[in-house]
Amino acid sequence: MAPIAAAVTRVLITGFGPFQGVPNNPSFAIASRLPTTLPNNIELIVYPSAVPVAYHPVVDLLPGLYNSTQPDLSLHIGVAEGRTYFAVEQTSQRNVYSWATDVQGQVFKDSEGELIWGDQSVKLSTDLDLQATVSDWQNRTLGIVWPIISSDSSLQSQTIATPVSVILKESVLEEVPLQRPTEHELADDPVRWSDAVGTYLCGFIYYAGMVQKSRTETVSKRKDVAFMHVPMLKTDEELDFGRDVTIELVQALVKSWKSQRAMGA
Predict the structure, then answer these.
(1) Superkingdom of this entry's organism (predicted)?
(2) C-alpha closest to that of 73 among 12, 157, 151
């Protein structure tokens, strides 16, 4: 008897387009460099266009995108200009998007959020196990070579096996101290856990994605969604590096997701 083929795990991935100060958004450049399949029967469903950095187009896009692709889990990607590391974010929230206009000059009023998401908690956290994911992600990226980042950072070409010792220029997204999941110090880890998704389109798509994923899960209502912030990568070498780091994150996410399913979590 022929062996039964393992089920394919479908992962939806999006990246953002340009916004003020970022004419070439590395999040979509990385997403567009990803392959369509990965080892361990992983299928990547990369949205073929850069998502506009605008509230209402995101709200309009996600329901149809999630319903048509039916992903097992999803990864939305955005850029954090001031960071020199990659991070997966734990939580996001609504009612914080009325202070900053998007690329279309619009805001997203609290009343709009209440109308669309009034049945949801104000603050949402992914149901993916990010602690297990990040631990695996760090191990998987030990041999990946960091290029020389083209920003003003002092990051030099080296492998991740040697922690990058740089003074991190924290972005506005991290003005609030992080609530770390363990006592393990992550300050020098170039791929890490974070809880500072911010109050602009990165946080907005993360919250909207978690809501939409739970609504497509008619039984479990699980929010199997992740958001990754990437540094301001610019050159082809840097973007290829970002692609490789992202591939290892997807592998780690899927491994953790499968483990949760096996345990009935």
Answers:
(1) Eukaryota
(2) 12
pLDDT tens digit string along 33-85? 999 999 999 999 999 999 999 999 999 999 999 999 999 999 999 999 888 89
Task: Specify the pTM.
Answer: 0.86
pLDDT, tens digit (0-9, with 9 covering 90-100), for 177-229 = 333 333 343 346 899 999 999 999 999 999 999 999 999 998 889 999 999 99
In a domain, 2, yes or no: no
Tokens of 84: 């020199």
What does each C-alpha distance from 168 to 87, 154, 155, 165, 191 come to in angstroms? 13, 9, 10, 9, 13
44 touches 38 (CB < 8 A): yes
228 lies in a domain? yes
d(CA 242, CA 27): 9
Query: 46 is in which domain, residue-wise?
Result: 9-262
Sequence-ordered list of residues with C-beta below 8 angstroms from that of 5, at least 6 positions apart, any chain: 41
227 in helix, strand or coil? Answer: strand
Contact 77, 25 (CB under 8 A): no
The set of residues, in sequence order, having a beta carbon less than 8 Å from that of 261 and lying 6+ positions away, is none
Burial group, residue 105, by CB count within 10 angstroms (0-12, 13-18, 19+): exposed
Give residue for tokens 């914080």. Answer: 96
Q: Residue 110 domain-assigned?
A: yes
Domains held by the chain: number? 1
Query: In Å, what is the CA distance from 206 to each residue of 53, 56, 76, 163, 261?
Result: 13, 14, 7, 29, 22
- Which CATH number covers residue 195? 3.40.630.20
